[in-house]
Amino acid sequence: MKHLRILLTALAVLGLAACHTQSTPTSGASAAVATVNGVPITQQFYDSYIKMISGGRTPSELTPQQRAMVLDGLIRAEAVAQEAVKQGLDKQPHTAAMLELTRLNVLEQALSDKYLAGQEPTDAQLQSVYDQQIAKFPKLEYHARHILVKSEAQAQKIIQELDRDHGRNFAALAKADSIDPSKANGGDLGWFPLSNMVPSFSAALEKLKPGQITQTPVHTRFGWHVIQLLGTRPMHAPSFQEVKARLKQALENNKFNTYTTSLIKGAKVETYLDPQTGELNAKGTPGMPAIPGAPPSAPAPATGN
Hints:
Blueprint: H1 5-14, E1 32-36, E2 39-42, H2 43-53, H3 64-86, H4 93-116, H5 123-136, E3 140-149, H6 152-164, H7 170-177, E4 188-192, H8 199-206, E5 218-220, E6 223-234, H9 240-265
């Protein structure tokens, strides 16, 4: 995306050479490393930018060439930004919304980092969550194929045809009559746990033995199904170590979401958008009268981890 141009350029710069050089002296954090039309690029901003794009490294860990190229990139970015502001582009609705969204995301991440600091879940807590999830993990996965049609009568006719030839014509009938994309594979759906399918489909499939075909058409919101179970096999759950990092992230997300929910409950919140129509309601916008026939007003996008 265009908004990632500066970041991607900097990442490419940092991949040019090894990053082990002698430390170079730096001035105070508030000093400027450069100015563009009198606007300073501070040492603090320069250092933070390098840390962000390099996985935590400092300027002293880059080569002189890399430091120079990063600084040149920031100078170019500042010059371009100044020209964009000069042309009033920061006032354009979409650009202003993107700037505001960036501000919201950065502040949310900062608050999340501060709130979760020192609250990392222990291995025992992670193991407990893992055990709970493994207890619910499907024991089997199923291999099945199906023929999907629009009417019950058509599905029943297909069942009768399959009964006459003991299912040998299943793939051919699927290719000829099914309205599901799987028709190209003779109706084959591959391997899947029952939880991947809608309840009525899974319930019918679970009653079959390998090779059997449903004797009653199965109805779902997609239409009418004729289903054949081809086989089952045990599902192998991932190990604790394989999912530990994801479990940690999920627990931290849940904890922070609980915290942010409490912030919302403690805040004075008024909404002015009708969720049914997408238009401003009678209250209009804070500090402004409602405008009859005004176009829908888009709220600031919600952010999340």
